[in-house]
Amino acid sequence: MAEIYGVCLFKPASGELYAFANGKDGSFLQYRLSASDGKAKGELVRRFKVDTQPEGCVADDQRQRLFLGEEDVGVWEVDARADQPATLSSVIKVGEAVHADVEGLALYQSDNHDYLVISSQGNDSYVVVDAEPPYALRGAFRVGLNANAGIDGTSETDGIEVTSMNLGGPWSKGMLVVQDGRKRMPEQAQNFKFVPWAEVMKTLKLP
């Protein structure tokens, strides 16, 4: 692979660790990772491809599925196990709630509900769908300006991450972290914004 564009990890119940790497030509390479004699090693165990440029990916270790974004097409899911066929199934397509480019993907997993969060870069929003079939659309939201705190909203987001861990205070339901490609207050290089997941739940009326 000439240029790696995205990377994500997968750890099945067997305890092995895998890495998925994708390139601009649509290729995905799956490596089994190991460490012996103080050296990390990667063994190529599977490869598959999408038709156009991919973006972010995230693995659901519990369900052994891999979610992957294709910039101008949408989000797919595929069996993450190395010994299974890489048959792609559509989760959500561009033109529904998602506007190209599809960028970062993240999984919110809790005892009650699991959600897939998608960075919809084309309209500077974040789309939430159920993380299991039929992948029901829960809604979309934007991260806006907080004038009192002097914090601008977010736009041009690439990567995102989310946790359901209780981090205390307003973060008791977890935290969403989004990359902000245009920092306006003040004008500086890109940065990251932290969003209480409780606010996402309230906005989208999530159970």
UniProtKB/TrEMBL annotation:
Domain BPP: 1-204
Family annotation (SUPFAM superfamilies): Thermostable phytase (3-phytase)
Cited PROSITE patterns: BP_PHYTASE
InterPro entries xref list: 6-blade_b-propeller_TolB-like, B-propeller_Phytase
Entry's Gene Ontology molecular function annotations: inositol hexakisphosphate 3-phosphatase activity
Highest rank taxon of the organism: Bacteria
Protein name: Phytase domain-containing protein
